[in-house]
Amino acid sequence: MRVFGEPGAPPEGVDRNDTLAAEIPVALVFNGLSHAVMMATPERLEDFALGFALSEGILDSAADCRGITLQAVDGTVAQLPAGVPGIEVHLEISARCFERLRHRRRSMAGRTGCGVCGVESFAALDLEPARLPARDWLARVDLPLVLRAMSGLHDLQPHNAQAGALHAAGWAGLDGRLQRVCEDVGRHNALDKLIGALARTQGLGQPGFVVLTSRGSHELVRKCARVGISALATISAPTATGVQVAELAGLRLWGLVRAPRGVLYAPGGAAVA
User: Fold this and answer.
1) What is the largest CA-CA distance in the chain?
2) What is the pLDDT of residues 103-143, one digit of tens each?
3) CA-CA-CA-CA torsion for 159, 212, 52, 120, nearest 10 degrees?
4) Alpha-carbon distance 91 to 94, whole Å?
5) What are the C-alpha distances in Å from 178 to residues 50, 150, 201, 235?
6) What is the per-residue pLDDT for 269?
7) For a surface tag, which of 34, 168, 241, 273 has the fewest beta carbons within 10 Å of its beta carbon?
8) Is 65 among the catalytic positions?
9) Residues 220-265 pLDDT 10s
């Protein structure tokens, strides 16, 4: 690459080596049925697939997944550009969950598309998740706690330190210490990887909260609420719909968490009038 505008560099720029973030197509295949292809950073793909299946309501629990295997894709057969690899992640899931997935796909095929976010109908947006159970510890997720967790993200993003193009999702306990951090080029993917990792270690439902290097959009709030995560803090602002979904779900939502400041957009817990 050639860099321009550095102090002391010549007007014609200077040649440098750089590290770029990896981003490849990843197909999620359930019981042999290809359901979605996502562009993702090719690491922790088992966690990514499990987290996606849980956060999108395909599985009810991690126990509904019987196994996960990775398979490289022949780029020529898949009609991928030269030099672009692909991976299929195959999940074997319970018959109950697979039948529900097939029914959902049949229903979507018969609807008239509304053109919103790539889904097939307004109802498919699923903007009103089930309400989260009351958490007696939720008020402890206060500004000092979320600031401590957010401050720890930087040192736990090795890929972003090299490439500068990845999001991170972290899980912090009620002491504010980050217990796990996942990186990906996509903010949704980073969260799904984190959810999958927590599900594998029985971490879902435990006291704690998620921190994200992104805005608080409605789909990230919905993913958290769907798997029982009761608190979320983001480095950027939420969207209006993200706040509304958090209020409906009873999820505690912090945004613009940048020391020494943070904004509590939804307190969580209390019933919506």
Assistant:
1) 65
2) 887 654 443 334 444 455 555 566 678 899 999 999 999 99
3) -120
4) 10
5) 21, 9, 15, 15
6) 87
7) 273
8) no
9) 999 999 999 999 999 999 999 999 999 999 999 999 999 999 999 9
185 within 8 A of 21, measured Cβ to Cβ: yes
CATH class of 138-266: alpha beta
Strand segments, DSSP code E, in 86-159 are: 86-93
From the candidates 65, 97, 114, 182, give the one annotated as an active-site residue.
Answer: 114
As a whole number of angstroms, the distance between CA 250 and CA 159 comes to: 34
194 token code pair: 């984190």
Q: What is the CATH number of domain 24-125?
A: 3.10.20.10
Q: pLDDT (tens digit, 9 = 90+) per residue, 153-208?
A: 999 999 998 898 999 999 999 999 999 999 999 999 999 999 999 999 999 989 99
* Look-up of token digits 């957009």: 265
Residue 119: predicted pLDDT: 52
Q: Which of 255, 259, 260 is nearest to 242 (CA)?
A: 255
User: What's the token pair of residue 104?
Assistant: 């959902």
Domain residue ranges of the chain, discontinuous segments joined by + = 24-125, 138-266
